[in-house]
Design brief:
Layout: H1 7-21, H2 29-40, H3 45-55, H4 59-68, E1 80-85, H5 88-92, H6 95-106, E2 119-124, E3 136-138, E4 141-143, H7 148-176
Parallel strand pairs: 1-2
Antiparallel strand pairs: 1-3, 3-4
The structure holds FE2/S2 (inorganic) cluster (FES).
The site of FE2/S2 (inorganic) cluster (FES) has 12 residues, from helix 5.
């Protein structure tokens, strides 16, 4: 995923700060990665390279570790985080189909973020609303009985909301100038 303006500098500064808090030793790798992820929201390739250089370990080892443990995310969180429940109740009544619909509509796979960073998509375990299965949570909003025909409408409501926000911000800027 390509970096947005100013992000490279932000990553370098954040990682440098985290490395400053830890002794540059291989056994500190997991705590370092966790702290970097906490600060940045994910583990960018650039951060892993910077950590590899500081700890003098091959970058490929760090990448392998980050992909092995599923608490690490390699893609930035989207502005809207779509979480599709894959708990048993949801899976049995179409959770997998709902996930595939979101993947097709957003043109990304689960675990990824759209290039414009508006949406990220992930699968989650039971979110505790099994009677509404299949369930999808977008940001904090729980959507129940998500059939394929509802996927477009759900995404559209967030896209419209974003467009309204952008238009309002542009109008405000225009009013101030
Ligand atoms: S299995 Fe999906 S909410 Fe429980």
């Amino acid at each position: 995923m390509s970096l947005i303006e100013g992000e490279e500098e932000h990553i370098r500064t954040s990682v440098a700060g985290v490395l400053h808090d830890h002794e540059a030793a291989r056994e500190n790798l997991i705590p370092i990665l966790l702290q970097v992820q906490e600060e940045l929201g994910y583990l960018p390739a650039l951060a892993m390279e910077q950590i590899a250089a500081a700890l003098q370990v091959p970058a490929v080892d760090i990448y392998g570790l980050a992909t092995f443990y599923n608490q690490f995310r390699l893609h930035p969180p989207g502005k809207h985080q779509v979480k599709v429940c894959m708990g048993t109740a949801c899976y049995m009544v179409g959770g997998r189909i709902a996930l595939e619909c979101f993947e097709r509509r957003l043109e990304i796979s689960e675990g990824e973020t759209t290039p414009d960073r508006k949406f990220s998509l992930e699968r989650v375990a039971c979110v505790g609303c099994c009677t509404m299965a299949p369930v999808v949570v977008v940001d904090e909003q729980v959507e129940g009985r998500v059939t394929p025909t509802r996927v477009d409408g759900i995404l559209l409501s967030y896209e419209t909301e974003d467009q309204t926000e952008t238009a309002a911000a542009e109008q405000k800027e225009e009013d101030l100038s």
